Task: structure prediction
Amino acid sequence: MAEQRENYRGREIIVRSGEDALTATEGRGPGGLELFIDGEKVFMVRNAAGAFIASGLAFDPQPSPIDLAKKIIDSKPVGE
Result:
């Protein structure tokens, strides 16, 4: 997977990996993955079980970056 895009509730989610992640920004997230919501980078970490957690946000670990992004979007009021 080089880049995966998905629209969810009117917000754009992008997950980049590999070469796309290296050339798009400095530094990479867990396993070389980067997560963006509407162009804003979400810093994430991977726990010992392999689930993804947003750094600085209190959410249950999610099985994929896309699921994590959806959880973040669902938690924010409309228009934010």
Q: What stands out?
A: The helical segments are 18-24, 65-75.
